[in-house]
User: Which sequence fits this backbone?
């Protein structure tokens, strides 16, 4: 099973090697060893580093604030903080440009370049860190922290030396996802005019239809990814930690005193800048244009297309991610690490390259599947497998293997141990992974355009079509519905993963009845 | 169902023969005088065809609907960027489900044709369109014409300030005022035309001077026209019809906008007329795709483009879009679109100049 998943992830890579091998090593080297490639490498890597660091700060900080502190308003904020993930980067970047144009009279001071790209990518990528870290923090057993506190460690030292190390797999996994997302992103960097690898790949394809140039550049992107994976692997070497209790109970929120309002303020600033700017722009588009009415006739079909394709993609991805994630968490070793890492390789490739590789796979190997929703779902699995693998692995790393061993020693079959012990314990992680894949698939564009069944629309393709000729008023309803639909699974997952106490609207009640609201992840949370 | 079975069979066999995939088979000899219905297999229409459209759905869906109600032939349509669509066609090769390719520019049709994926069109079809606007080997025809123009803000640029040539735009009086879209195929075709007409060195110099003149770079033509209208940019190099799309989106008459069009005079490269066009993909089992080409080049089809997308018609005897100079009155540069194939050199030159 794990091998099958790896094969899916490696499909685009195989295609890349096949295609670039046709040209030969000499011509590959000739394309790669240029000043431009060096510049692209520097830009792409710096952007990835800057955005990842910023994502870690915002993601870990906000996750800690909503799960472990008494910051007022943390229950609604916990949900809102995940929402920027629902905004496609191309929509985000475009709305930022159009809002900044309102203020800037000087066209040369346009909102573009490295800083702009770093800001926009951070604001819409940090949930890759926030979601898994918050889910992990909500599940981590607080007893070690309580011991540390009772032995006289201050709250900050406890946070740094006890709490954060326990969720380190989630932090590292989230950071890795953010870094790879930045490498693969096309929408934001192209609108904000920053020359990265992905933009160069698109340019090679779109101008001159130069596939060999595009694919050669993509192989360099794979090498960069390998470097990042290697670097991230080194930070993990200390090994996974397992919590000791089977079902965690919520930690007692830390009283921040007056600082709690600063915490709320910081979270509100993040949410407002990330969601407010697109909201403002979309409202302006709706008001200014005349084409909005045209969206309403077709929005239902497009929504159905988005939901069905993304749901199928999420199910397939999670099914493939489960064995890889469990293997990586339960049997750490060279092989499982290799399999897990392989899942990440396609994630840093731009959607158009993965799309083309599946076009090739479709017409040469799986023709009956070509231009069906199944092949599109396979593309989503190929692109987004790491989102689910990271979620499963970090959930499994926190579920103590001692429980499985106990079940086995009591005579349960491995299959029964899996369904009765392992699966329930990792379900919140699986749910979060499924939702991440679902959300990301909903906004995916280049591969969707290449692989969707002829005549099928999604909200993202309709959005693309409307903005393609400047019909922003028509685009606005699609963008709004895309975000609204994506908000539903986000909300469910935030509740189910225990970031916000389930069944309780009042965040403070968990202090008075700490055990009553303990999440009991016994029912499947595959995908809402 | 028949198609699915056939595709499944090919799918099963293809991995075996993949290595042998060499140059594609020559299409059947062009029928001289034979109509499309009798050409090839001569099969009856099955009432459906698959069209890959690199043109925007909002722009072409209505005329495709007209075609269906006129002929009863259903059109299965895939929409994507012209470039992505060309890449997809090239990747699909002979297994492509497409029957026809509708592209936004001649370059994409040329790239697909160069791989032998397009069929020869019958002479009657080619005869409808001026030689300048069709493929030299008869594998694609232009459906509409679009002219390069300078869109300018009527408040910021006076008429006597308008340049006689794109060459002037690199001068100090235009510093920081000109919008360009270097990633756009239409800009690249125009630069290719400059290379062909004025030589590599002249084109490289122009690009370097332009880049040094602090141009306003945008991703798309539409953004340039909108920014010229809003006054964020004074002028920009675009295709002529974006102004009409902006007017439609704002719900006003084109004259009410603050942006107007300047057609470069005297055969200047800046007045290049390019096309959107169509080619037939792969073996034609029946004449359905040909029927679509026929319809789009009929008076009804061409009138649609003139009135709804404000593009120039390709057939004789039709007036151009209202309010625009007639196609024959445009002082276009003397160039054959077939000479604009070498995009790679253009792209590396644009990249070298620092515009990409």
Assistant:
């Amino acid at each position: 099973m794990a091998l099958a998943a790896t094969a899916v992830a490696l499909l685009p890579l195989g295609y890349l090697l096949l295609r670039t091998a046709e040209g030969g090593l000499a011509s590959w080297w000739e394309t790669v060893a240029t000043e431009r490639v060096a510049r692209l490498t520097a830009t792409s890597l710096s952007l990835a580093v800057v955005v990842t660091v910023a994502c870690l700060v915002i993601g870990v900080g906000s996750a800690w604030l909503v799960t472990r502190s008494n910051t007022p308003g943390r229950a609604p904020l916990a949900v809102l903080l995940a929402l920027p993930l629902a905004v496609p980067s191309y929509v985000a970047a475009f709305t930022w440009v159009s809002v900044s144009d309102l203020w800037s009279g000087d066209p040369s001071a346009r909102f573009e370049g490295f800083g702009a790209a770093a800001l926009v990518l951070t604001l819409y990528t940090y949930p890759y860190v926030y979601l898994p870290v918050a889910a992990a923090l909500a599940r981590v057993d607080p007893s070690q922290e309580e011991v540390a506190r009772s032995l006289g460690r201050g709250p900050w030292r406890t946070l740094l030396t006890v709490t954060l190390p326990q969720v380190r797999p989630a932090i590292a996994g989230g950071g890795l996802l953010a870094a790879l997302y930045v490498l693969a992103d096309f929408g934001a960097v192209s609108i904000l005019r920053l020359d990265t690898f992905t933009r160069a790949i698109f340019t090679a394809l779109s101008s001159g239809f130069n596939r060999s140039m595009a694919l050669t550049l993509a192989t360099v992107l794979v090498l960069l990814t390998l470097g990042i994976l290697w670097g991230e692997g080194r930070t993990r070497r200390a090994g996974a930690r397992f919590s000791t209790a089977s079902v965690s109970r919520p930690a007692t929120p830390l009283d921040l005193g007056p600082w709690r309002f600063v915490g709320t303020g910081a979270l509100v600033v993040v949410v407002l800048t990330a969601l407010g700017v697109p909201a403002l722009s979309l409202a302006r588009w709706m008001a200014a244009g005349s084409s909005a009415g045209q969206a309403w006739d077709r929005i239902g079909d497009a929504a159905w297309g988005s939901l069905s394709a993304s749901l199928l993609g999420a199910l397939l991805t999670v099914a493939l991610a489960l064995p890889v994630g469990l293997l990586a968490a339960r049997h750490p070793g060279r092989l499982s690490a290799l399999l897990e890492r392989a899942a990440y390789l396609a994630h840093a490739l731009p959607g158009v390259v993965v799309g083309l590789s599946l076009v090739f796979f479709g017409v040469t190997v799986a023709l009956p599947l070509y231009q069906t929703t199944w092949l599109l779902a396979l593309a989503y699995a190929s692109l987004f497998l790491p989102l689910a693998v990271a979620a499963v692995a970090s959930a499994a790393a926190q579920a103590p293997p001692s429980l499985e061993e106990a079940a086995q020693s009591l005579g349960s079959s491995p299959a029964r141990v899996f369904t009765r012990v392992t699966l329930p314990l990792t379900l919140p992680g699986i749910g979060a992974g499924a939702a991440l894949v679902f959300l990301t698939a909903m906004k995916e564009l280049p591969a969707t355009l290449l692989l969707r069944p002829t005549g099928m629309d999604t909200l993202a393709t309709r959005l693309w079509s409307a903005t393609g000729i400047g019909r922003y008023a028509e685009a606005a309803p699609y963008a709004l519905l895309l975000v609204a639909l994506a908000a539903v699974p986000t909300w469910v997952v935030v509740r189910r993963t225990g970031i916000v106490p389930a069944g309780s609207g009042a965040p403070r009640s968990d202090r008075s009845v700490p055990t009553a609201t303990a999440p009991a992840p016994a029912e499947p949370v595959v995908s809402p | 169902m028949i198609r699915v079975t056939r595709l499944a069979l090919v799918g099963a066999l293809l991995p075996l023969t993949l290595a042998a995939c060499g140059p594609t088979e020559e299409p059947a000899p062009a029928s001289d005088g034979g109509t499309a219905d009798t050409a090839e297999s001569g099969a009856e229409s099955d009432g459906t065809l698959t069209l890959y459209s690199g043109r925007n759905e909002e722009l072409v869906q209505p005329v495709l609907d007209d075609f269906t109600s006129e002929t009863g032939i259903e059109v299965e349509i895939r929409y994507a960027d012209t470039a992505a669509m060309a890449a997809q066609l090239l990747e699909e090769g002979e297994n492509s489900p497409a029957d026809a390719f509708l592209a936004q520019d001649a370059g994409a049709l040329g790239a697909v044709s160069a791989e032998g994926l397009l069929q020869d069109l019958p002479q009657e079809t080619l005869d409808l369109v001026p030689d300048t606007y069709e493929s030299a080997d008869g594998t694609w025809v232009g459906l509409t014409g679009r002219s390069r123009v300078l869109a300018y803000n009527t408040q910021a640029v006076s008429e006597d300030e308008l340049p006689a040539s794109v060459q002037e735009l690199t001068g100090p009086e235009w510093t920081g005022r000109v919008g360009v879209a270097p990633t756009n195929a239409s800009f690249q075709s125009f630069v290719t035309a400059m290379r062909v007409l004025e030589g590599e060195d002249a084109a490289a110099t122009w690009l370097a001077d332009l880049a040094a003149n602090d141009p306003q770079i945008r991703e798309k033509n539409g953004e340039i026209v909108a920014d010229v209208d809003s006054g964020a940019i004074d002028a920009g190099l675009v295709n002529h019809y974006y102004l009409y799309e902006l007017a439609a989106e704002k719900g006003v008459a084109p004259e009410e906008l603050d942006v107007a069009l300047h057609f470069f005079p005297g055969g200047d490269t800046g007045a290049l007329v390019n096309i959107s066009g169509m080619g037939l993909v792969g073996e034609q089992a029946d004449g359905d795709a040909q029927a679509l080409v026929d319809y789009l080049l009929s008076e009804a089809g061409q009138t649609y483009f003139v009135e709804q997308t404000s593009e120039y018609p390709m057939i004789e005897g039709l007036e151009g879009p209202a309010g625009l100079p007639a196609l024959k009155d445009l002082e276009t540069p003397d160039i054959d679109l077939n000479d604009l194939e070498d995009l790679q050199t253009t792209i590396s030159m644009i990249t070298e100049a620092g515009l990409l």
The two ends of chain B are 46 Å apart (CA to CA). Residues 1-42 of chain B have pLDDT under 50 and may be disordered. Strands of chain B lie at 48-53, 74-79, 100-103, 140-153, 178-180, 216-217, 235-239, 259-262, 273-280, 312-313. The first helix of chain B runs from residue 2 to 17.
